[in-house]
Every structure is written in C-alpha cells, then in structure tokens.
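Internal QA ticket QA-208
Title: Verify multi-chain structure generation after dependency bump
Assignee: T.L.

Test input:
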Amino acid sequence: MKKHNFYAGPSILTPYTIQKTADAVINFADTGLSVLEVSHRSKEFQAVVDEAVALTKELLQLPEGYHVLFLGGGASMQFCMVPFNLLEKKAAYLNTGTWASNAIKEAKLFGEIDVVASSEDTKFNYIPKNFVIPTDADYFHYTSNNTIYGTELRKDPDSPVPMVCDMSSDIFSRVFDPTKYEVIYAGAQKNLAPAGVTIVIVKESALGHVSRPIPTMLDYRTHVKKGSMFNTPPVLPIYSALMTLRYYKEQGGVAEMERRDVEKAAILYDEIDRNKLFMGTVAEEDRSIMNVCFVMKPDYAELEKEFLDFATSKGMVGIKGHRSVGGFRASLYNALPKESVEALVAVMKEFEAKH
Ligand SMILES: *Cc1c(COP(=O)(O)O)cnc(C)c1O
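Actual output:
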C-alpha cells in the first residue's frame, strides 16, 4: 500500500533527493567512492558546498553581504549562537510556541530580553498582533512557523530593528524579504534534507559588534571565514540539501513551491472546516500552510483513536498530533505531493460517512 508521509520532522524528502543521495552513497561524482568516505576538502565535495551556497542565495534572492553557512548542532544550537554573536544589551523576542520559548531561555543567558508578546495563555493557538518592538533592541527574534502548534507568520513583520528568524519549518515554502534580517536559520530536517545540518544565513554587517569573547566554534565569523569548513561539516545532509535545492530550482523556485503549498493547505483546511467530525485548533488568519493541526469536535472526541487507526490502515503516516497539543497534525512540506493531501481528505470523508 502507498504510504503518505505527514511526519513533522524529520520528514518527507523529494524522491529526487532520496534517489540522488542513494546514488552518491554508492558512487559520488564519478569518483568510484561513496560520498560517505571522501574528504570534505576534496574538490568534488567543495563543489557541492559551493553550489549549495549559490543555489540558496539564488532561490532566496539574497543580496550582496549575506553569507550562507551549513552548520551542525541543529536549530537549537542557533538559540545560543544568535545571542552570543549579536546581543550586546537587549533583544526583543516574540513568544509563539515551544521553539520560541527555548530560544528566549537561551538568550536570557546573554542579556536583557524583552518578550514583546506571547500567546502562551491560550496554548499558542494564535500569533499575537500589534506588539511593540523597542527601538533600542539589538534585534527582534521570532519563529516564522510554529511546527508544533500550526501557526505561521506568513508576512515579514514590521520592525524598527533588524530581525532574526527561526525558519526551520517553512524556509523555501514562501517568498520573503531577506533584507529585513540579520540572521535566518533553519534545521534542514523539515523542508530540505536529512537531520544533521542547519542552514544559517548571516548578514556580514551584523557581526563583530558584541564585546564578549565568543568560543571559536560558536562564532559565526569562524564559519564565514572558513566557508563552513572550519571543522568537518555534515557531508551527507549537505549533499542531500543540494539535491533538494536543485529540485526546487528546476520546479520553478520558491514562488512555485509557495503556490503549491498554499493550494495543498487549502484542500485540507477546507475539509477540516466542512467535515462534521473535525475542527482546526488555531486562529484562522494564523493557520500554517506547513503544519495543519486539527482535533475531533467535542461531540466526537471519543473517536480520536479510532480515526488514527483508520487513517493508519489507509496508509497515512505521522498524523498523530504533538503530545502537547493532541489530536492530529499533518505536515505538508514542499516534498509532499498534492495526491497525499487528497488521500487524507478522502480518508476523513470516508470516516465521516461511517459515523
Ligand atoms: C524542529 C524545530 C526546531 C529544532 O530543531 P533541531 O534541529 O532539532 O534543533 C527549532 N525550531 C523550529 C521552528 C522547529 O520546527
């Protein structure tokens, strides 16, 4: 039976990425060696990094003055690297969920943190609006897509200070204005590559302004200077990332991904709103196009397990909601085909007809 992969992360990759990665595990760039066993400093692998950097710049339309890094440590490492490198006195943070809270916790180790707004009081089921960002903050940090709760800021906020964004789960799914940001980071395992690499975009002019000493490995300047090769980078995930980037370009780039993602999300949200058994969990205007969270309506709450079993029996994988939200979460990353969304909708309709 065909499986439909709705996992939140690590998550579905394009068949192209999987096939090309598998090929390179056997024979990388006609070297007769596996990509797993060649030097990261070989000219063949250097070409991989160079092309991945160039394609990221092209797809995200990064202007001059931005560096693209491929680092280890996950997005979670960026929660401390960002303030280590950018926070001198005070920074502003928007609290929209677990990942944002984790980022705030780390930043507090480095200076004064102004949490400009939080939706924690209602279990992060909306994005706060009309918050005021202090003009004396070194930067404003937010999480563009809240993977666990299914809310998303789909427009660049207005900020009087430069922004830093955790785009782990929606990078390459929507067009944004990079010039508003000093740092953008994203763990690759949601919309790009296998786990192990984090893509970090840093604006050159943002660096070198803090007075504290920064450990070598945590200093962005180290990795900028060495082109992500200060130490051994995660070679396999970087190789896969390049394959995905090539695929995105070939398919029409980020704008085309966005068009498809918006269409896929609309199909599922329309069914959630129509189906008598289900309801969405977040404010309609803040609904994520990447992670769609929904629950059984109160009258049908006892059917939750039955639906999960039914959907699983029909090939749906990874739709159990995060333990902090419950219900269901279907992640509709770029690599997920529209047919999978349609298959899930068909299962929801069939289940409705049985009840
Ligand atoms: C998954 C995720 C993280 C954590 O990423 P790691 O690479 O596991 O550290 C951080 N932020 C967001 C928005 C995420 O979705």
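Spot checks passed. The chain has two domains: 15-251, 254-354.
Status: verified.
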